[in-house]
Amino acid sequence: MTTIAPQSTLVQKPIEVLLPASVNESQVQAPTRVAVIIITWNRKGYVTNVMRALSRQTFPPSQLDVVVVDNAGTDGTLDHLREQFHPERVVFNDATLAHEPRFREPIEQAGGNSLGLGSLTLVRNATNFGGCGGFNTGFAYVDSVLDGAARPAGERPSFVWLVDDDIDLPETTLANLMATMARDENIGLVGSRTMDINNRASTIETTIYFDPTTGLMGDEAPRGHRLEQSHREWAAKVGGTRGEHYYSGSRDVDIVSACSMLARWSGVKKVGFWDYRYFIYCDDADWCLRFAKAGYRVVLSLDAVVYHTPWHHKLTPARAYYAMRNILWVLRKVLPLETQKRALPGWFRRILWEAGKALVYRRLFAAEIARRQLDDMVRGRWGKLDDEGPAFGDLFETMRSAKLLTPKATIAVMCPRADMIAWGDELRATLEAKLKAAGCAENMPRFVYVVRNDVADPGASVPGAPKRVVYSSRIRSKLRRQLEFFEHWPDAAIVFDHTNDFPLVYTGWNIHIDRRQPARAQIEWDGWIPRLTIAAKLAMTGFRAWRFWKNLSPYESKGRYG
Length: 562
Hints:
This protein is of the alpha/beta class and 562 residues long. Helices cover 34% and strands 20% of the residues.
């Protein structure tokens, strides 16, 4: 990585990096009001647990004004929460755009909520605006109602706490966030340390830094960063930024995660709300960098722990689309124009290259979604992706409808990793059992495993095992191995978790299986016409990206939404 210039565009003055390990809760004044915003979509069980965790916080729950935004869910979340917790008010938002809220008159209920919170409001969006738009709905409600002119000054919030609906909150999380915030009025944002909800001894996220020369983010401070030396010393002392280490105190960083983020409300009114274009991903990073640009400190509280699922466990081609499209918009906003001209071409090439690889490696709809990352960014298409690929269907029925349940069919299982061989064996056993149960065991198709030569494969010598086609990472090897399919042209290729690096050139079906739901699959036809169509689109996207780069100009903020 090249040496980077000082980050004068992000933070205007030197800061003290190391902070005291803890602050007594009595230092946080009890009368301080905190607005809490939780966004939920079809996870009523999860959000119910978070609500109960809020009521157990050591920071006085009576000082919390909680706003739960139901993002047009279909699982009955609104009615469930009304029945469970008796909110003071329910508000319907008829907006079709998150940044143009249209709140109806609230439905009010006397008697107070059952959690002992200062207040509880449920907001029901008519449209799913994603996490980004959901938080903007919450901000708009806090701004117009909780901080509105009709609200007594002593009941208005000084801080707003953003909370994901699928985390677990220890009782001291908010108290530790508030204690860190109380140390310096120039702190604008405080975030939590994230631990693995399935392995609670392991920390999965601490420090996050931004490299202004490349636009990359990571948990190690890049070379030349203003915090590089202190970060290296701290990481060496504690044993690293992740894992089963002891962490305490606070760290100045560039970015904190919105799964648990405390913001100074006066800073929010100065910096603005979230960029409405994002839908999900990078919205919190954008906000942190904007706070820093406005002169605020962004701080990680290592003692304010939350438990969460690692974000990469949720990754799909559609989610990767949001992450990549949105980070390009972040770079447009925070990088100087000359730095953009140097950095963006590398990002553009990387996206086109990944889309091209997906096209060649039997992942057609993933290739199209990857292409859209760049195409939608340069064309200004924001919000939710309108095509996330083929719908999931039952695996057995999917194969039946594609006429693959016949002894004449040949199915190639792509195995660039050892676990995929085991998954292929499991799939074959399940399929064989289903066919026997249906009285048509003779319809079992023929399987071929396409295995990379550095993958351990002890099952290859087992009698009755599927034929192996073994290839190396060299292009010549991959091309030669195509000949082994000449006798039995594959009718379909099975790709697990969108992972494959063998360019099976024969046309046929692609069956995509996400191992988080192995009984379901997505299917697409991989023929020459779809391939050539996507290739032509890639060429056009490359041209649009070049034209966008040639006409780059300084970014102009669109008001309170950054």
